[in-house]
Predict the structure of ADP-ribosylation factor-like protein 16.
Amino acid sequence: MEEPENKIKVLCLGPKGSGKTTLLKKLQDVEEIDNTYSPVPTIGTNIFDLHYLDKAGKKQMMLIREVGGEMAPLWTNYLDGVQKIVYVVDTSNLCQISAAAVQLYTILAEPRLTKAKIILVLTKMDAAYRQMRNEALLMLQLARLRRELRRPLLLLEASGVEGDGVPELKQALTNVPVVVG
């Protein structure tokens, strides 16, 4: 599927099982996402359409390419022209966070992304206890990352199952305020 040239290029990355697919489906308002939903790990890539109204009230669509965690060695093949990165980390899996941090730092060092907006999403907060968030931030070395990164990094917490943080993610992607409730 060829992407239109004038569309914002968004890439969603993160380790295997971090919740990328579930989060993106929730972003699309897919109704069947609940506690019984069990996604299949992404092998390859998925394309998600995000429909929204711009600030003028005109219908818009954004394409988001999700690249599976198993394809981490190939992520750099998808970076050309990318304007926004959504990087998803599973906070309920402390064993995976250090590896996720290494992958994130590798992506952030990529010269083709110097102008890309970075959105770091901590997922599965509904499955983690509150202290795990703090441990995850320490393992990701977020304070150091923010000091050394030469551009803003947006940190969001989200749950693809419960929908928490999804409106904020949509706003960050579209630059359009989202009314909740």
User: Anything to note?
Assistant: The longest strand covers residues 45-53. Confidence is low (pLDDT under 50) at residues 1-6.
